[in-house]
Amino acid sequence: MAAVTPSSIKRISLGSCTGIIANFANTLDSGDTWASGIPDIVYICATQEDVAGTATSEGCGASWSGSTITFYLGEADGAVRLLVITGSAY
Fold first, then answer.
1. The CATH number of the domain where 62 resides is what?
2. Are the CB atoms for 24 and 80 separated by under 8 Å?
3. Number of structural domains in the chain
4. Residue 89 clears pLDDT 90, i.e. is over it
5. At residue 51, does pLDDT exceed 70?
6. What is the pLDDT of residue 28?
7. Which residues contact residue 51 at a Cβ distance below 8 angstroms, ignoring those fewer than 6 apart?
8. pTM for this one?
9. Considering the chain, what is the average pLDDT of its residues?
10. Would you state the pLDDT for residue 55?
């Protein structure tokens, strides 16, 4: 487990919510965390952005507690794109 930082962040308007798209380079491991500082998270979605070594190691997921996001990857050193939706004007 390690603390990670995105390689890029983009904010988008989703009506009364704000979307944050964060890209993480192919160095993420399962259990890595991002202290995002994003308030009022209502939804997150993580997608694998590189090719897995085998079909059994495909996929990724994420969960949050407060503004800290934890990643779960099927394979070490994965690239991930994360969508975070917040109810605040972050």
1. 2.60.40.3940
2. yes
3. 1
4. no
5. yes
6. 92
7. none
8. 0.90
9. 92
10. 64
- The residue range of the domain holding 49 is 8-86
Q: Determine, yes or no, domain membership for 13.
A: yes
Burial of 36 (0-12, 13-18, 19+ CB in 10 A): buried
CA distance 74 to 14: 30
Report the pLDDT averaged over residues 6-14: 95
15 occurs within a structural domain? yes
Within-domain flag for 1: no
Q: Which single residue is written with the structure tokens 């939804």?
A: 43
Q: Would you say residue 3 lies in a domain?
A: no
How far, in Å, are 28, 34, 39, 72, 78 from residue 57 at the CA level?
A: 14, 22, 32, 11, 10
Q: Is the pLDDT of residue 41 over 90?
A: yes
